[in-house]
Specification:
The protein is α/β, with parallel strands linked by helices and 588 residues long. It starts with a strand and ends in an 11-residue tail after the last helix. The structure holds flavin-adenine dinucleotide.
């Protein structure tokens, strides 16, 4: 009986493929495994091999034709045989996969290779674009709009760089760097270095942090100026959907626009806990600028911001307690990865209470007393400082959104995947509207919004967003957690590789942590990667790209990684998924 050659399924979301070229003609003899034809999907070309020995009896799909996965492309059999080309059915693609594939299709930019569109000279389109807010969402949008030929004005009420540069990503990481240097010096003896007594000069640590912030904020200003963006200092609000009022010390100014991008960011949420307004109770902004390192600190909220501050102050010798209401810190991150990180943090002296709730904060002399329900046990904890880090909410105060007819939902500006608001020529980006409040997401949204103002038809795809937690060691992830993958109906294949088996980790004295890969059992497509360890926040980009390209385990395995590097651990985790990790002891 004839054997059919069918359109292979080369990825989880592939629904159809195109025949590029037949390497054989009808009547040609074939050996099993010999290349018969080449097919193409939207992301790769693939050589299809003969499934059997025989003659190529029939070519059913000509070069250039596109057919669904599973469709018969040709038949192999013996001379004189009449193949039944209706024999094989088109593979039924599950509705969820079809939907995912069609969503990805829509998200893909149309037209020429993205980023190579002809760029008009500055101001050439004559389109007047006003950007409100100079954080990562706003300044990136402004630069991109200027690159595309807009006449761009950016309005900022405080400091360029927004939360990220002034009181967020950058100052926290500057403090973290000093804390890490402190710990490295403490551990220097292990590396064979004897150093004299170590003294933390907190005022110098603070000064360095402020200097880094200043330099980056000035850098943002320089980039905007170099791109021809006019920067206006003042508080902006809508007069109507085309006109913006800017209030400043110099007086009021009206700016007319053809398109507007709102990028006004977010502010810290404060829970209604009695005592939350006491002296010594601070949000993240206050925790950046303590006059001295507190000796005892309670952090309410075990999200990314709370856990990062816990790691920083613990490295400076502070006694830190985290109180988190949910069953795990870092909600949303992979359970196994969080448990690995928690163990390291606890070993460094950080106390973590999950499933716990703070009832009140009271002043007692120079201390604060926090009353909390710790899984059914009422306890009082004393501290010098309390950091409230229970989340952030969109900031749109004073914008007068109603005057422009911009719709909001629970204070968040409503946008579609093009970052367009309910008013077609007004866009919003970043924390004021985004489902994910992160600087790198805000930046990408800024580029997408600006592109759409100039007709590029771009859409946001959040599926590869890396989550980065800058603790010591770091935690980073991209894609689905094991829990999410199972919930979505995937049959999961997972592999875990401990950092202790990675040569670079051992050399660097950073053996804590692991890489975990969550893949789909059927095709080995990588669904999620979760890394705990040194440089995890850098290593995660390989995972984001792999997920973006719908890479499979064997594609990661077949990619040679440098040696010795931390990133070899990612390849080993892919090998572990396939049951063949080289650098870990096999379990019986
Ligand atoms: C402590 C902390 C640490 C963080 N660490 C990280 C991290 O490591 N990585 C990460 O990706 N994210 C981090 N974030 C989150 C990140 O800072 C935000 O997601 C990011 O700044 C959002 O960018 P944005 O442009 O939307 O808003 P913002 O950065 O908040 O900028 C908004 C700007 O708009 C201005 N503005 C507001 N209203 C008006 C108005 N009416 N007129 C004129 N100007 C106005 C504000 O003054 C502000 O400058 C951190 C946040 C905090 C608080």
């Amino acid at each position: 009986m004839a054997t059919m050659i069918t359109m292979p399924k080369l990825g989880l979301t592939m629904t159809e493929g195109t025949v590029l070229e037949w390497k054989k003609n009808e009547g040609d003899p074939l050996k099993k495994g010999e290349v018969v034809l080449v097919v193409a999907t939207e992301k790769l070309t693939y050589e299809v091999e003969a499934p059997d020995d025989g003659l190529l009896l029939r070519i059913a799909v000509k070069a250039g034709e596109t057919v669904p996965v599973g469709a018969i492309l040709g038949a192999i059999g013996e001379k004189g045989e009449e193949p039944d080309l209706g024999a094989a059915g088109v593979e039924e693609v599950p509705p969820a996969e079809k939907e995912a594939a069609s969503e990805r299709e829509q998200e893909r930019p149309t037209g020429a290779l993205k980023g190579t569109e002809p760029v008009p000279a500055k101001g050439d389109t004559g389109k007047r674009v006003v950007v409100i807010g100079g954080g990562p969402g706003g300044y990136v949008a402004a630069i991109r709009a200027a690159q595309l030929g807009g006449n761009v004005t950016l309005v900022e009420k405080e400091s360029l760089g927004g939360t990220c540069v002034n009181v967020g990503c950058i100052p926290t990481k500057a403090l973290l760097h000093s804390a890490e240097v402190n710990r490295t010096v403490e551990d220097a003896a292990e590396a064979g270095l004897k150093v004299g007594s170590l003294e933390i000069q907190w005022d110098v640590v603070q000064e360095r942090k402020n200097q880094v912030v200043k330099q980056l904020s000035q850098g943002v200003k320089a980039l905007l100026t170099a791109n021809g963006v006019e920067v206006v200092t003042g508080k902006a609000s809508f007069i109507d959907d085309r006109n913006i009022l800017v209030r400043s010390m110099e007086g009021d100014r009206k700016i007319e626009s053809d398109a507007v991008i709102v990028a006004t960011g977010s502010e810290a949420s404060l829970p209604p806990i009695p005592g939350v307004d006491l002296d010594g109770v601070v949000t993240s902004t206050g925790a950046l600028s303590f006059h001295e390192i507190p000796s005892r600190m309670v952090i309410i909220g075990g999200g990314v911001i709370g856990v990062e501050f816990a790691s920083i102050y613990a490295d400076f010798g502070c006694n830190v307690t985290i109180i988190e209401m949910l069953p795990q810190i870092l909600p949303g991150a992979d359970g196994e990865a969080v448990s690995a990180l928690s163990k390291v943090l606890e070993a460094r002296g950080i106390t973590i209470h999950t499933g716990a709730k703070v009832g009140s904060i009271e002043a007692a002399g120079s201390s604060l007393v926090i009353s909390a329900d710790l899984s059914g046990r009422e306890e009082k904890i004393e501290a010098d400082k309390v950091l409230v880090a229970v989340g952030r909410k969109p900031f749109t105060e004073g914008l007068n959104l109603e005057a422009a007819g911009i719709r909001t939902e629970r204070d968040r500006i409503s946008v579609d995947k093009s970052m367009r608001t309910s008013v077609p020529h007004i866009f919003a980006v970043g924390d004021c509207c985004s489902p994910i409040m992160l600087a790198h997401v805000a930046m990408m949204e800024g580029e997408v919004a600006a592109g759409n103002i100039f007709g590029l038809d771009e859409k946001m795809d959040y599926s590869t967003t890396p989550g980065c937690v800058y603790t010591s060691p770091e935690l980073a992830w991209a894609g689905l957690t094991e829990e999410e993958a199972k919930k979505r109906g995937h049959k999961v294949r997972k592999g875990v590789f401990p950092m202790i088996g990675n040569a670079k980790s051992l050399i660097s004295g950073e053996t804590r942590g692991m890489v975990k890969i969550v893949a789909d059992e059927k095709y080995g497509e990588i669904l999620g990667v979760h890394i705990v360890g040194a440089r995890a926040t850098d290593l995660i980009s390989e995972a984001s790209l792999a997920i973006r390209l719908e890479a499979t385990l064997d594609e990661v395995v077949e990619t040679i990684h440098g040696h010795p590097t931390f990133c070899e651990a990612t390849r080993e985790a892919a090998l572990a998924c396939l049951g063949r990790a080289i650098h870990s002891i096999p379990r019986a």
